[in-house]
Amino acid sequence: MCAFLQRRQRAVLETIAALNDASRHSKAAVLQALNTAVRAIDCSIDVVLVFAPAQADLECVYACGSRAEHVPGTRLSRGASRFLPAHAALCGHRVESSADYRPVLPSDRAALAVPMSSADGLDAVVYVASVKDRLREPDVLVGVIEQAASPYRIAAD
User: Fold this and answer.
1) Which of 75, 84, 119, 141 is the most exposed place for a label (fewest CB within 10 A)?
2) Beta pairing class for 110-118 and 57-64
3) Rounded to two decimals, what is the model's pTM?
């Protein structure tokens, strides 16, 4: 196995361990560990938002990044599927930015929304974005976000 793939695999395993450790503390600790992980994978990510179900809406419960200062508490209707997080919640899988879906922030040039679900349903939607034209390694980002779902759920209980 080439050295790059070994380093990538080791980094992913370390991320999973950090997420599991954070689950013993709080949901906020899990989200901070996730924020650290996605930014390590792609240094162009400058916004990480997490939306949790709140009745018929998704409410921003975590916001990190210099452009995210006014986002905490923002609500998106789950029926507003033109927004990436709402569409990801509706379809149950990742959604990447395109002409069909609106980013949360107008300055987002590349974005990805990934639902975190359990047997009980939707727990949250993680949204990562950049002012750059594309995200590097979106498949790796999705994998890490999906790995965070169980620790997030454990911390919630």
Assistant:
1) 119
2) unpaired
3) 0.90
